[in-house]
């Protein structure tokens, strides 16, 4: 199920990025798949962090012109997802909350890196818009994928941390 979630997220993000060229619908499905797969790897944290790094590396290769940037950002966000999941329970409301935090951290981190390497000039409006433009489609996606995986997990008796 973990590989399926990652592949679907990666594939759908690519399709939507190429087909829908609307500035307020910026998908981050691959990143959000880290939230969905975490409960299935709760007892295998090392595997989870390795998967975060590999997904980030594949994201770098497939969607960006950077190498290792997203690999390390995804690893960082994976660690933050882990810390949050230790404190709160896994339910649809908390998954939305974690998604919001994940989107903000991802956008802020990439923004700061791009400023640091002088690719962008500081512009808070640009940062705000990149965060807001990522919210709508990603929150819809995370709700749908959470509900689907929850139904499948219950039906097949797949262990998931609650």
Can you give me a brief rundown of this structure?
The protein has 162 residues and is mainly α. Helix content is 76%, strand content 0%.
Rg calc: 15 Å
Overall mean pLDDT score?
91
In percent terms, what proportion of residues is strand? under 5%
Largest sheet composition: none
Helical coverage, percent range: over 70%
Q: Report how far apart the termini are.
A: 17 Å
Any low-confidence stretches, pLDDT <50, length ≥5?
Answer: none
Q: Given the helix and strand composition, which structural class is it? A: mainly alpha
| DSSP helical segment count | 6
The SSE order reads HHHHHH
Notes on the structure:
- 76% of the residues lie in helices and 0% in strands.
- With 162 residues, it is mainly α.
- Helix 3 (45-63) runs antiparallel to helix 4.
- The protein is globular, with a radius of gyration of 15 Å.
- The chain starts with a helix and ends in a 6-residue tail after the last helix.
- The mean pLDDT is 91.
Q: Any chance you could write out the topology, listing elements then pairs?
A:
Layout: H1 2-19, H2 29-37, H3 45-63, H4 69-87, H5 92-116, H6 124-156
Helix pairs in contact: 1-2, 2-3, 2-5, 2-6, 3-4, 4-5, 5-6
Features:
mainly alpha; 6 helices; 162 residues; single chain; 76% helix
């Amino acid at each position: 199920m973990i590989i399926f979630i990652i592949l679907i997220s990666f594939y759908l993000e690519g399709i939507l990025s190429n087909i829908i060229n609307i500035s307020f619908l910026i998908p981050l499905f691959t990143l959000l798949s880290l939230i969905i797969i975490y409960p299935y790897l709760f007892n295998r944290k090392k595997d989870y962090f390795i998967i975060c790094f590999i997904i980030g590396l594949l994201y770098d290769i497939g969607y960006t012109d950077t190498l290792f940037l997203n690999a390390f950002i995804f690893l960082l966000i994976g660690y933050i997802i882990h810390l949050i999941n230790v404190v709160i329970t896994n339910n649809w409301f908390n998954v939305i909350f974690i998604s919001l935090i994940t989107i903000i951290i991802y956008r802020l981190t990439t923004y700061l890196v791009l400023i640091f390497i002088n690719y962008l000039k500081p512009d808070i409006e640009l940062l705000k818009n990149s965060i807001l433009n990522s919210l709508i489609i990603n929150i819809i996606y995370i709700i749908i994928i959470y509900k689907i995986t929850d139904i499948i997990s219950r039906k097949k008796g797949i262990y998931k941390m609650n």
